[in-house]
Amino acid sequence: MSKLLHVEDLNIEFHDHLIPETVVYDFDLDMEPGEIVGLVGESGSGKSMSALAVAGLLSRHDMKKRGVIEFEGKNILSCSRSELRELQGDEICMIFQEPLTSLNPVKKIGWQVEEGLKIHTDMSPEERKKRAIKALEDVEIEDAQRVYDSYPHELSGGMRQRVMIAAATIGNPKLLIADEPTTALDVTVQSQIVELMKKINREKKTAILFISHDLSLVSALCERVLVMKGGYVVESGSVKEIFESPKEEYTRKLIDAIPKCGSTEDLVENGEPLAGMKDINVSFIKRKGKNKEKVHVLKDISLDIYEGEILGLVGESGCGKSTLAKTLLGLIKPDTGHVSAKFPNTQMIFQDPYGSLNPSKTVGFIMEEPLRNLTDKTPEERYALSKEMIEKVGLSEEFLQRYPSELSGGQRQRVCIATALMLGPKLIIADEPVSALDVTIQAEVLKLMMKLHMEMGISFLFISHDLRVVHQMCDRIMVMKDGEIVESGDRVKIYENPSHPYTKELLKSAGLGPGGVK
């Protein structure tokens, strides 16, 4: 069988600094028609750069590319711009991580799904519309006509990602490059997208290059895997070889960092309630044009968070998890019900550390801000406490002088945790604190949170859609759906003997469930 894709000795070098920087070294990849290959590694390893080069999307003047990228015998690095345009969006398509930024906000979905047909075919508008609606139906979108006439902001994250897949596959490409296509999605939607990509591969014989830092998804979808570190491919082989008998220490480190669902012992006994909610109801007024609609977000929520425990809160996007957290913090006033807190100064850690930090201020200034606003400590006392807390989260005093843009994702999240510690809280609400991080950085941050929990006696409300992480971290778990707590209990009960159909569905989507905890 002739190769669909042949990449040999690909080197990518940037010239936007005084000293040239090589980001990809001697990258080799062969793909057969209809094959699914995984590309894994941490941020900065060169995964996306290699994929963008294969897609012909690296054309900056301050960049030097060397090597061979042959697609069905045609060298993408040396072919003309017109030849490349014939391939892009037709033979080779790409799906990106964040569909909302990839879709044009002022164009309707139908216009965007049809765009490839406008460029590469001479179909009539009627034929294009019929083909676009069929493409939306193929990615299992219900009411495709309504979605065709919608704008991106009117769709959920999972729907937008399906639209991206429909737009990418409408012309039946031979190669689909998927760059972290499920990172921002809930576990059930992740599972659906993976199954959809399997279906496209099976029915259309489309080859897929799947880029991800989630090794459990790679093992579920791919046949072969390439592991990248520092711009190099350090190991490659079949999924079975890589996951069962990795040769490189770095590969073993990546696999070991996957949250394991192991022991269900050593659960924390309940102490005194630190905070609680009783019969909480929260609603918002949603406006659409001149019409107003009351949306009931939280429905009769009651809960207690105890001293010394980590309480997990799981559920899909839009179920009310973050609204619950903000109500507990006092940022949202409930319509009815009562919120109680034994200690003040409950703090919050957010999902996106970069968006949580003021880019124009130093780390030291950001960390001292709660003390400036809420205490009468002197500048010397504030600095001493910020130095103590930055070191407690594993960073040096020197980081206090840096700006957020000078930190990695893991370092920024550590700064957010250190800032949350400044007022000595007894309870921290962590809202998806590791979902945007690589698997190894995720493991480090989770280990840090557990260390702070053990050493400082801090309790956590841990919000996540990753059931493996929740199993690793939490003592008790609450499952939320459509604004209600549909099930709650200790870790053993929820994972080994779930009672609600929705909990069973979540566990099944994560490859877990009764008898399947692993």
Strand content: 25-35%
Residues in helix, %: 25-40%
Going across the biggest sheet, name each strand in turn.
Answer: 6-7-8-3-9-10
Dominant shape: globular
Radius of gyration: 25 Å
Number of helices: 20
How does the major sheet shape up? 6 strands, mixed
List how many beta strands DSSP finds.
19
Straight-line distance between termini: 38 Å
Summed over residues and divided by their number, the pLDDT gives a mean of: 88
Low-confidence stretches: 263-267
Q: Helices and strands: which structural class?
A: alpha/beta
Describe this structure in words.
By secondary structure, the chain is α/β, with parallel strands linked by helices. Helix 4 (109-120) runs parallel beside helix 7. The strands form four sheets. A six-stranded mixed sheet has the order 6-7-8-3-9-10, with helices on both faces. 37% of the residues lie in helices and 26% in strands.
Give a quick summary of the entry.
The protein is of the alpha/beta class and 518 residues long.
